[in-house]
Amino acid sequence: MSKLLEKGDIALFKYNKLRFSFANLKAGDQHILTSDPWSLINSHLQQKISKSRGENKTFLERALYFSSLAESFYKAANSILLPTRATLLYYGMLNLVKCFLSYKKIELETVHEHHGLNLPLGTNGQIQAKPKSNEGVNIFATFSELLGKKINHPLNINFRQAVINIPEIHSLCHSLELINKRKLLPISIEILCNSEHNKFFTEVIIDNEQKTKVDMGKFLKTERQKYFINGLPREGKIVYRSKRRKSFNKENINTIYQNILKDYSKFDIVPILTNTGYRYYVDLKNPELPHLAYSLLCMFYLGTVARYRPNEANELLEGTLRPVVSEFVNLSPNQFLYQLCSILLEKECVVPFSSITPMSTI
């Protein structure tokens, strides 16, 4: 089979490489370097508002308001210690989600709103996520659905179970033996074209050493099994190639490129922002929620425990989970901000090399 496969050239558009991204980029788009994603969101919304009227303008103005609230909560949290810090960060992340929902024209101000999450009485570490109902707007369930995973029934999730689904602290969870085997598989993705430059195909490249670290047999499962075959062999690598090639021309190249990104959105691929850009991983366990939803859920838990359950808060801060809680609170809000900013703007927002921030230590 591999002898029949052509090598393929890196796909270009106007001399720029077509890159895989979790954001809905346009063909040839490059990174946006920013140490202040809040200003990007603000500027983007202001520009949209200046060109809008009526109901569309109302949604955008509401999004701008929620973005401003989110920024204030984030900045206020910088000088506060745990457990109070988690409360401020939850409200920052929640209002950033409300900004995103308003941008997507989800009505919030004139209807009853519910976080969509609660901590059942008599439980320790349990969070319940409710599905959408006809009673107002369920913020969490709506957010999860917009990111690609619909909540069809109540989910009861333990904090320990939830936190291992957050990519940036997954390695720490493994080191602390909260999980037996890693479930995040590091990958590289290449968008390629044939020698005639009229058909796209993609390859996922994995280091051979991952065979000993994760359950590689789970890669070709679910939607990925239908999409991939073995790719052209590379030394020291495992390669999977898309079964189908997509024809393109100058007129439709952007549409075809974005269709590829849409295809990949079904494969449980999660990003981590580093000081060299985004790295990508396949979640081999088919999670029930998007990774950003897990981040919001975990911060809801920490923020709510801080306000209402002092004994449980003390257990978290003095027990074996303290390193996980601390790492999560230090890393995840910025990951959440940069990634949601990228999704909202449909641009890939990354940290500049020259920016000295906590993000640069990831």
UniProtKB/TrEMBL annotation:
Pfam families associated with the record: YaaC
InterPro entries associated with the record: YaaC-like (IPR026988)
Taxonomic superkingdom: Bacteria
Record's protein name: YaaC-like Protein
